[in-house]
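Students often ask why we bother encoding 3D structure as a string. The short answer is that it lets us treat folding as translation between two languages. Here is a chain of 188 residues written in the first language.
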Amino acid sequence: MVIVGLGNVGKEYHETHHNVGFMFVDEIAKSFNADFKLEKRHSAYVACINVNGEKHYLLKPTTYMNLSGKAVKSFTDYYKIPMQDILVVSDDLDLAVSAFRIRKSGGAGGHKGLLSIMQECGIRDFNRLRIGIGRSENKEVVDFVLSKFSKQDYELIKDTLSYAPNIFLDYVNNGIDFIMNKYNGLKK
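And here it is in the second language, the structure alphabet:
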């Protein structure tokens, strides 16, 4: 299985709203003492975790958000990983800060990273976990998603991300339906 965290590479994007997917897979890697290594051929940072004798991957595309599908397609094609074995983690403006929404399929909802994956891989039906980042009334969408969290929202997001290792294990051991039932709507 592959957990794809969506985000943008570079220090200026570290811990911004749009990088919640990167933060999610970073939490999993930290919990399992896994290191990300750049795989240039796939335009992604990749970490490998063994669970029950099977390899599972964490992926952080280096293509920037709007071209995430290129990295996902390259990686899944190369390792012959079916799309039903990936879970894409992204931010969601329409969810309250720190809320989860897990689905097996759906539209992009205006999210360019998800749209890129749909276009590159030619499929809408893939597992996705969205983490709420709220919406700013004062900023344009682009400015907001590329901005840092407020101190209060950052604390909520940190609490939410503490679930990442458990979600990963539950997904690997029990599948998408299990994590949908257990974590959907969960909000700290």
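Translate back mentally: DSSP finds seven helices and seven strands in the chain. Keep this in mind for the problem set.
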